[in-house]
Amino acid sequence: MYKSRQVCAVIPARDEAEAIGRVLSALNAAGTVDRAIVCDNGSRDATAAIARGLGAETVDESRVGYGAACLRALSQIGYCDIVVFVDADDSLQLDEMPALLDAIVDGADLAIGIRVRQWREQGSMTLAQHIGNRIAGGLIRLIWRQPVSDLGPFRAIRFDRLGQLQLRDRRFGWNVEMQIRAIQQGLNWVEVPVHSRRRIGRSKISGTPGGVARAGFDMISTILRLALNNRSSGRQNHLTDQ
Fold first, then answer.
1. For the segment 184-203, what is each residue's pLDDT rounded down to a tens digit?
2. Which of 45, 89, 157, 235 has its CA at a distance of 20 to 30 angstroms from the CA of residue 203?
């Protein structure tokens, strides 16, 4: 429990045997999480076995995709007060989790860890990540007029609000969809500065040209789809009011 709130950590993982032990050990040391659920997203290594050995719950999702793994892990929860999304590559400083949780306790629905420039370890974000983050964030600011600084993966959200968002993206548009739907539904969202460091192992997204292209396509297409849906919904409401 964290300040009388039950907290669940969702950890999508694919071939993260080198890092998952460090991530779960850091979570256990922090003592802020009641349950850690690791979704093994088609790993060919011992990711799931290591996670179970450290006390995490594990589920399998054969359809490869960040969103698919998150949705599968969420289906295991049942109920909690706060869900925290954690990467399995040891790029996050999990002792900073209380800052995200405190934001929720203080009234926010969604708290997003933003990777501020002066707190980034050199090499923690690739050039492709920088460019993709800038383009996606810029589009959100342009379309929805909201001060989005980062699309960081380290985030906490009230469990009931998460269900309200009805997220559907099964690939790399998951984080973008979460932020836009939160904006569209008028949720109270805040940004919390966090550190970032170099991940362990090679990224399945930014580590290959194909991964970069797929992630970029998923993020941009998600933004445009939600923008068009929002416009169509507004037009329909206008016609209904006449």
1. 999 999 999 999 999 998 77
2. 157
> What are the chain's domains?
7-241 (3.90.550.10)
* pLDDT tens, residue by residue, 159-192: 999 999 999 999 999 999 999 999 999 999 999 9
149, 155, 159, 163 alpha-carbon torsion, rounded to 10°: 50
